[in-house]
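Record filed below.
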Amino acid sequence: MRRLLLALILAVATASLALGAVTAADLSTADVVFDEGVTRSAADRERLEATSRELAGQGFRTEFVVVANRVDDIDGLAKQFRRGVGLDKVEAVLVLGPRQLGVDAKVFDCEK
């Protein structure tokens, strides 16, 4: 029982480390959100913001979340954010992690 409790505490702690403080509410106020611990340049942020603006201009509002650590279910995380923002308000949410890309979008799977 003690090992099970310890494993549960460790799993919750690990999950919170994978995604620090980003919430769907953050995506309501910004199209690009960097999680705590992300060490990317201002130029990287500007490129993502420019891409988001260009896609929105084409009628495909897209949000980007950049996380510092690997995420077990990165597509699930993208889906969670998109649902949190509102499926009718955003066409796509992309979550970028170390060597990972999670996508939830109003497109067919083959188009992702």
